[in-house]
């Protein structure tokens, strides 16, 4: 077990190692360095591949390291059928994406930086799906947002890329905060901080009065990450990223993180009316919106991006539908979508890379120049359209089997699924046929077949979509069944194969094909009608995001103008108002005002003299006509306190107080005499009275708090501790010195650092002032006199 834990930890660190090595490898080997860099995710893929027999038997693998045991915090992972499938998709497709990026970005000046970002993204997503600890899950969840921000904004010189990156970060980062609150609520409800233990606490969570709040917060995190309506707009805009990012983002990583979370929490939060209403509703709405918007697009990547939105909606709808067949259909479609969507995105990138455009209206007749790319696109399109003999056909048949029923709810969602699948059929063949068939047209670059680094990845994924369907029994055993069993937490039974099951599901598949052919045949008209319809609706959530951000910036500016007007006196006044309120209000509200003690009768003459010196110093501050006199007079108060320390047997504190007061007076005098200030106090009488009242309130608050504290019984535990251990541990006879230097060593060091920084700041202020005066005198000789 220790070896497995160490190897798993190493596998999780391999993407980080790739991120560190990427700039150096690319600098030395150029684009061919992708072959070396792909070793890291491939080794991780092989490591997780070793767990398939164990997971297929229904076992789980856990491991990790304890971090803060007292707070149940650990760096731990949890592998079952669901997390293992995601880990294999992330590392397997990640290997192909690294190779693809090597060819796609060949010669790019920032290729090394890109590979570092993609490896960090891979590591973050891998951490999300294998995390057992809530803390580990949340950290990696937010890392996916940060790394996707870097990847989407990779071409940072373009305003569109910067906007898309910021939009993705704001939407998914805000959802991450919702997820954090949801995880904290789940911790509070269940008392556990690990997913593996939370799965067994489903009844406790569902019966809690905080269940609905926790569900809404978790859905906030999942819906934003997986682009569910109305948060779907950020995902198509993320197509500003280079195509390798788009292919990876849509097939195996970030956008499926929300789907993974919902699948993982299905045993915990599922099987409730709220779950079975919210998820199918928003999932179905997202399916319809995504496919409808995809029809309108002419950019190949945007068409595929909107179909990803619709596919994610379909997965969410199936997860929330509430039947065992729906969970099994979600498991099948998860795998099928990863394979065909990764392949199609890479095909779109190949077309763009080799022709110079992705506009479907400017592409035609590429079949002769790019026959291999066309075959790959056709194979992936068959799977996306749900046609045999590809794995997408199995998924679609299972979807219709799961949704069938006699009620209004079943009919509604079956109709939505047929509509969405028909449009995805049309879009799949629009991508696979429109650019390749017909008469060749002139493109910005002469088309030709892509190099091996570009076509290898999509070819492998398209072939896997075929082989997974042909050998469906084996696929179900090692992949589909473990995924569905993990989601349901009961053994699943999937027997769907390429052999058609006569009945209503097959009839619905035929209807889907007929509708899809009709839409494809009238694709230009459907695009026009959709554009007209969307114009009639007006602005959508994407424009609303711009309005919200603009309003937030204006609000922040107005708040800053009020709270940060740039006047020091306002800041100081607000600070002391807060101090006075904090000191006085609790004492008054909670009845903790101290009892006024009787005036001591045994005050000696020299003690009266010290008090009189302090009183004369206070009077001198109040009547001083210039600031320098007030500063020097103010020092009298500090010296009086130092003498009191000396009289009452604390010579070390007295010496410290003398030094502090002397330095304070000297430094303040140096600063004030160097600054151009009015020679006397110009405040109006009302302001003086207010400031005086505020000063008295602060002083009174500190006095009352100190008096109340001295009324409490004295606890000599610390005194006994320091007296006992100062000599034996710190080897010092002076207890006060030992406390300051040893027991409070770090605190004292911090105080010294603060004083040093303050002194440097004052020195810089004086020098700036002196330099300004010299420059003024040099420019205006008359000013020198």
UniProtKB/TrEMBL annotation:
Residues 131-414 form the NADH:quinone oxidoreductase/Mrp antiporter transmembrane domain. Residues 69-115 form the NADH-Ubiquinone oxidoreductase (complex I) chain 5 N-terminal domain. The chain crosses the membrane at residues 31-49, 85-105, 112-129, 166-190, 210-235, 277-295, 304-323, 329-351, 372-391, 411-433, 453-474, 502-521, 568-589, 605-624, 631-649, 655-677, 689-707, 748-766. It is found in: Cell membrane; Membrane. Residues 687-768 form the MrpA C-terminal/MbhE domain. It is a multi-pass membrane protein. Keywords: Antiport, Cell membrane, Ion transport, Membrane, Transmembrane, Transmembrane helix, Transport. Pfam families: MbhD, MbhE, Proton_antipo_M, Proton_antipo_N. Residues 613-676 form the MrpA C-terminal/MbhD domain. InterPro entries: CPA3_Na-H_Antiporter_A (IPR050616), MrpA_C/MbhD (IPR025383), MrpA_C/MbhE (IPR046806), ND/Mrp_TM (IPR001750), Proton_antipo_N (IPR001516). It comes from the Bacteria. NCBIfam families: PRK12647.1. PANTHER family: NA(+)/H(+) ANTIPORTER SUBUNIT (PTHR43373), NA(+)_H(+) ANTIPORTER SUBUNIT A (PTHR43373:SF1). This is Monovalent cation/H+ antiporter subunit A. The lineage of its organism: Bacteria, Pseudomonadati, Pseudomonadota, Alphaproteobacteria, Hyphomicrobiales.
